[in-house]
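Standup notes
- HV: blocked on the assembly model, inputs below
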Amino acid sequence: MCGTCGCQDGNKATVTNLQTGEHTHIDADGNITTHTHDHDDHHHDHDHAHDHSHDHDHAHTHAKAHGNVGTTIALEQAIMQKNDALAERNRAWFSGREILALNLVSSPGSGKTTILERTIIDQKGKTDIYVIEGDQQTANDAQRIKDSGAPAIQINTGTGCHLEADMVMAGVKSLQPKPGSIIMIENVGNLVCPALFDLGEAAKVAILSVTEGEDKPIKYPHMFAASDVMLLNKTDLLPHLDFDVEKCLDYARQVNPHIKVIQLSAKTGEGMDEWYNWLKAQSKQASEQAFA
Amino acid sequence: MHEMGITKSIVSIVAEHAKTQKVKRVQLEIGKLSAVMPDALQFCFDVVAKGTVLEGATLEIIEVVGQAKCRDCGNEVELHQIVTACTCGSRDLERLSGEELNIKEMELEAA
C-alpha cells in the first residue's frame, strides 16, 4: 500500500509520471488523487476494483406489474456505457488538438516497447511522441521510453488485465501532450480483454512477432478483427524459424480482410520506414479531420 | 478475466436503478461475438451480488446471434463465431448484430 495517501484495496490503477515523479491514483469510484513522493522505499499493492457507474443519464424506465411476481423494469442500458462515454470524451479531446492516439495491443513479449523505443529515436526532431505504458506492475517500460527520449506515463493496473478509458484520461492529463503530436498507448500485454475496452484511440495496432506462431490471428480473432494494422515484428529471426509468413497473413485476412500488415524488425530497422510512413499519413489525417 | 469487471458494472448499474429495493431477476442481452462468456458471467454474478440488493437474484442471459451483410454479394449471413465466410466465399462482412452487451430489464421483489 501507499503510505502517503493510504490508498490500497480500493484503487483501480496508479498513474506514474516519469518526468515529475507524480503519482495519481484512480479509485473504484473514479475519484482521482495526485501526490508526489519517493517510491524507492516502499511497495505499492493495488488490487483491481470495479467500475461503479455514477453516470446520471438514466434510461427510461417503464414499469409493468406482473401480478404478485414483482415489478419488471426495462433498463435497456449498455453495460460498457461508462467506459464508452469516457472514451468518446478522450477521442474528442485528441481530435480538438489534432493528436493521433494509437492503442497498441499484443501478447506479452511481442516487442511493443522495443518498436516504440526505435520509433522515438528515429522520429526525433520530426514528430512529438508521447507514451502511456500499461502494465500490471513496475515502471520499467515507461523508464525505457523515457530513456529513449519521449515523455512517458506508467499506468499500473494491479491485477487488471487491460487499460480503461478513465486511466488513459488520467494519463493524458498528467502528460499534457502538445497539439499535433502522437500518443502511443501501450496496452497491457493481453490479446483478449483490451479488445473490449475503447480508450478513445483513432486505431488499434496489433503486434505479432514471428516467434509466436502464425495462427494467432484466428486464435484471438476479436483483437485482430478490431485492429486496423498488424505489425509483424522480429522478421530478422525468420531464417531460424519455421514461421510461415504467407499463412499468417492469410489467417489475419480471414479475420479482418482490410487489415494492413507491415513486416518489420525493430532490432535491425528493416521495414520500419513503412511504419513511419503509415504514422505520418495517420497523423496528417488526424489534423485534417480535427474540425471537418 | 474481464467477465469479473463486467459483472461488477452490471451489479452496480442495476443496484443504482433499484435503489433500496430487492432485485429478483436481471435480464441481459449478450451477443455471441462480444468476447464475453455467459457461463463466466453466471459464475461471477453470485459472488459480486453478495451483500447487495441483487443478492440471490437470478441472472437471465439472452444470447444474440450475429448477423452480417456481405459487402461483396449483399447476402445476409448468420454468424455463430467471429471467423465466418459468406456462402459466396467472401469474408468481407459488415456486422449488424452480435456484439450486444446490454442490461435489458430487472424485476424487483413485490413490496
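- HV (later): unblocked. Chain A is about 30% helix and 25% strand. The domain at 83-289 of chain A is CATH 3.40.50.300 (Rossmann fold).
- Next: hand off to the docking folks.
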